[in-house]
């Protein structure tokens, strides 16, 4: 199973529920950057995980979302077998690109195929939501508007492929820590500011792989992320990377998820490739030219 990364083309925090979870609104776009997940059933019990590729910093054992997904499926389906998971990591960990969620969803999809009829689609979505807010979308990764705590998913038609330059400062950023920082900053962030909603994507068009003219003000509204001030406070290099991406020619720069990965949007892939060379990123910065996957 391929487990695509994602970017958040804009993210709004719509409120905080009594249980502590935040209501959000975001546009999720899948990327051509993906992990590969292999799942095999064998005699025995339990879950075994093997990680290759970008294995550094990948949680092991019960802390890994892919392992938790396998255990949740086995318990819900009454599965009496050993689940062996091989994870080829390409997506950076704790980067705001949804890698762990994508892996978990890929494990659920793989087990659903290996055990046809064991769980209904609705039960699979319930398991996904219990694992994390991004996991339900990752069960069917396509351009979509996502609301609530990740359970309300509205597929979007006509969203073109977009050329991006991803840049990560090489630091791990905990989603939980970013949300705690957001809550601490929230009075200052929201004082006197009306609740905003993400604008429609009707003006986002491309032809022959080249993004057609769009209003820069619309671009800025699309990529605005309410978590960026909190993420930047925890990881100051985000601000420097943002400046580098703009200087390299990005039409607009956005933060994906809770960060720290930024994405610069370019008119076409060739200009993103040129920008990557011009920016001259050096370790520990991780960077990659990527494209979003268009609506089916």
Give a brief description:
The protein has 296 residues and is an alpha+beta fold. Helix content is 33%, strand content 29%. The longest helix has 16 residues, at 99-114.
Which outline best applies? Answer: globular
Number of strands: 12
**Which regions are unreliable across 5 or more consecutive residues at pLDDT < 50?**
190-194
Distance between the termini: 18 Å
Number of helical elements: 9
What is CATH's topology name of the largest domain?
Ribosomal Protein S5, domain 2
**In terms of structural class, how would the helical and strand content be classed?**
alpha+beta
Q: How many domain regions?
A: 2
Rg calculated over all Cα atoms: 19 Å
CATH class wording of the largest domain: Alpha Beta
- Mean of residue pLDDT values: 90
CATH architecture of the largest domain: 2-Layer Sandwich
Q: What is the string of SSEs from the N terminus onward?
A: EEEHEHHHEEEHEEHHHEEHE
Strand content: 25-35%
The protein's oligomeric status is single chain
- Main beta sheet strand tally, sense and closure: 6 strands, mixed
Helix content: 25-40%
Structure description:
The protein is built from nine helices and twelve strands. By secondary structure, the protein is α+β, with helices and mostly antiparallel strands. The protein folds into two domains: about 150 residues, Ribosomal Protein S5, domain 2, CATH 3.30.230; about 130 residues, 2-Layer Sandwich (Alpha-Beta Plaits). Strands 1, 2, 3, 4, 5 and 6 form a six-stranded mixed beta sheet that branches. Strands 10-11-7-12 form a four-stranded antiparallel beta sheet. Helix 1 runs parallel beside helix 2. The longest helix is centred in the middle third of the chain and has 16 residues. It is globular. About 0% of the residues have low confidence.
């Amino acid at each position: 199973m391929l487990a695509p990364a994602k970017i958040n083309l804009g993210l709004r925090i719509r409120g905080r529920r009594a249980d502590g979870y935040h209501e959000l609104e975001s546009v999720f776009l899948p990327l051509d950057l993906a992990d590969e997940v292999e799942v095999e059933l064998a005699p025995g019990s339990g879950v075994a995980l093997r990680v290759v590729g970008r294995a550094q910093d990948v949680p092991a054992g019960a802390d890994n979302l892919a392992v938790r997904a396998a255990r949740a499926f086995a318990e819900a389906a009454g599965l009496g077998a050993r689940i062996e998971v091989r994870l080829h990591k390409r997506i950076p960990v704790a980067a705001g690109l949804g890698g762990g969620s994508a892996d978990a969803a890929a494990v659920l999809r793989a087990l659903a195929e290996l055990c046809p009829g064991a769980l209904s689609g609705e039960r699979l979505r319930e398991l996904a939501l219990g694992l994390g807010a991004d996991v339900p979308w990752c069960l069917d990764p396509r351009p979509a508007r996502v609301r609530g705590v990740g359970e309300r998913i509205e597929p979007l038609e006509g969203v073109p492929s977009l050329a991006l330059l991803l840049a990560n400062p090489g630091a791990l950023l905990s989603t939980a820590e970013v949300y705690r920082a957001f809550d601490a900053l929230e009075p200052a962030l929201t004082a006197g500011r009306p609740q905003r909603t993400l604008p429609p994507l009707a003006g986002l068009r491309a032809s022959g792989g080249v993004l057609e003219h769009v209003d820069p003000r619309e671009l800025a509204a699309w990529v605005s992320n309410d978590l960026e001030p909190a993420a930047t406070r925890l990881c100051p290099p985000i601000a420097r990377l943002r400046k580098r991406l703009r200087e390299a020619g990005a039409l607009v720069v956005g933060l994906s998820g809770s960060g720290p990965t930024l994405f610069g949007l370019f008119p076409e892939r060739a200009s993103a490739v040129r920008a990557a060379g011009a920016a001259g990123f050096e370790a520990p910065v991780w960077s990659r030219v990527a494209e979003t996957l268009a609506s089916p």
